[in-house]
Design brief:
single chain, two-stranded antiparallel sheet, 81 residues
Length: 81
């Protein structure tokens, strides 16, 4: 599952405010704020948030010894950039 830190990082990368993410994930802004502050979220809510970010072109990096993170997805090969 994604963490509150990853959500904040992803919002910053996309320059989205809490309300922007809330609208795209179809959850309340209060829910986003609560999860970012370290409170738990329902699995379905975290999935909706993750999908909103993935649709915007981000991928999430799991704990791999270097900490969790987020980055832009690599463009598909054969596409013009």
């Amino acid at each position: 599952m994604i963490t509150g830190d990853q959500i904040r990082m992803a919002r910053a990368a996309l320059r989205w405010g809490v309300r922007d993410l809330a609208a795209r994930a179809k959850v309340t802004a209060a829910t986003i704020t609560r999860i970012e502050s370290g409170k738990s979220g329902h699995a379905a809510t975290l999935i909706a948030i993750r999908l909103a970010f993935e649709e915007a072109g981000l991928i999430f990096i799991d704990e791999n010894g270097g900490g969790v993170g987020v980055r832009f997805a690599k463009p598909a090969s054969g596409t013009d950039v």
